[in-house]
Design brief:
With 243 residues, this protein is an alpha/beta fold. It has one domain: Spore Coat Polysaccharide Biosynthesis Protein SpsA, Chain A, CATH 3.90.550. It contains seven helices and 14 strands. Helix 3 crosses helix 6. 42% of the residues are buried.
Length: 243
């Protein structure tokens, strides 16, 4: 199975931690975020990886070379010329992502207890073009789903902004995106945007004609590693896991 790890971001919320290094190499409980992500994906059967780089890109490349690619094939999608956001990153890595099987997309700054095998099976059984891993957690920004867990829109709860894929729904459920999703082989060919853009815009533009599904992760723990405080919480969790 193949996974694309999104690791090109600037990591500005991490402050001094990313001043002289990329977010992917910031350590959490003594281990780089990138290594933690690959280790967990490997444990559930993923054996081929794509990784995008931008901020301090050469440091990531050197880290992988020094550590024998962490024991797996890793293809680099180089965004040093321009950081392309979560949607543009897919187009840039088009050739490396193509194939006959679904691909898991995973933010490097996320630690979860998601059962990736179950997520992939849910995606396949629903014959979805994309399946978005979501949680029932507090977040200003949320995805909007109908009763069948099909994507219908996006909202910023703080500003009351809404984006719909068609007509607004009167009855719906909102969930927070978990930074993990699955795409089918035809997904990238259905992207109509170009350059630098958010993948959320592509999800919404496709959702009217294709199955863009939600997968509700109800596991106990999920961590965003976007700030030093959040890293501290994740480190406590990881330490407890080792006891």
């Amino acid at each position: 199975m193949k996974a694309f790890i999104l690791a090109a971001g600037l990591g500005t919320r991490l402050g001094n931690l990313t001043k002289d290094k990329p977010k992917a190499l910031v350590k959490v409980n003594g281990t780089e975020m990138l290594a933690l992500t690959i280790r967990r994906l490997k444990s559930q059967g993923f054996n081929e990886f794509i990784l995008n780089v931008h901020h301090h890109a050469q440091m990531v490349i050197d880290f992988l070379k020094k550590n024998d690619n962490l024991g797996v094939p890793i293809h680099i999608s180089d965004e040093r010329e321009q950081l392309l956001d979560t949607g543009g990153a897919l187009l840039k890595a088009h050739d490396q992502l193509m194939g006959e099987e679904p691909v898991l997309i995973h933010n490097v700054d996320v630690i979860s207890e998601v059962d990736f095998r179950e997520l992939m099976a849910w995606h396949t059984s629903n014959k979805a073009l994309a399946t978005l891993c979501v949680r029932n957690r507090n977040s200003d920004r949320a995805l909007i789903f109908d009763k069948h867990l099909q994507l219908n829109g996006w909202t910023n709860k703080k500003t009351k902004e809404f984006k719909w894929n068609s007509q607004p729904l009167t009855r719906y459920t909102t969930y927070a995106f978990s930074g993990i999703y699955v795409i089918s082989p035809g997904f990238i060919n259905n992207i109509k945007l170009a350059g630098k853009f958010s993948v959320i815009d592509s999800w919404l533009s496709m959702a009217g004609q294709h199955k863009i599904m939600g997968y509700l992760d109800q596991s106990e723990h999920w961590f965003d590693l976007g700030t030093p405080d959040k890293i501290s919480r994740a480190e406590l969790y990881l330490k407890n896991q080792m006891i």
